[in-house]
Amino acid sequence: MKHTINLRVNGEEVTTDVKSHRTLLEFLRDQLHLMGVKEGCGDGECGACTVLLNGEPVRSCLILAVEAQNSEILTIEGLAEGEKLHPLQRAFIDQGAVQCGFCTPGLIMGAKALLDRHSHPTEEQIREAIGGHLCRCTGYETILQAIRSVAKMRP
Questions:
Q1: Which end of the chain is flanked by fewer CB atoms within 10 Å, N or C?
Q2: Mean pLDDT confidence for 67-78
Q3: Which residues of 78-116 are buried (b: 16+ CB within 10 A; e: fewer)?
């Protein structure tokens, strides 16, 4: 069965039909071709599919696309302004927090949600924000450094 959904994705209005069983992850990747949203585990455990839904980080593999009706979605593709990277994207590159890159979009989206709520988060808040995001390459220290560096730049 198909449903028509209306939502805003990365600042653009989207009205389209979606099958009732499709996850938000499948919808974003397969219908909108937003490949920065990754499927790692499909069970909400790894964090690779994290997007912001109305400003809150969510695992898009656990949400049906129809549940996002009338919502605002932000993916990694919506962070940059043209060729200008978002400060978190730049910091991840500068700090060497990007290795294979598979987990990076989800980590950045989780960090963005944190910094939107707390411009100067504590170490515990940073660690909590990336808790549940699995990275097999970096050992997390460079990820923490990248998030800290952006927080330090904020007024």
A1: C
A2: 98
A3: bbeeeeeebbbbebbeebebbeeebbbbbbbbbbbbbbe
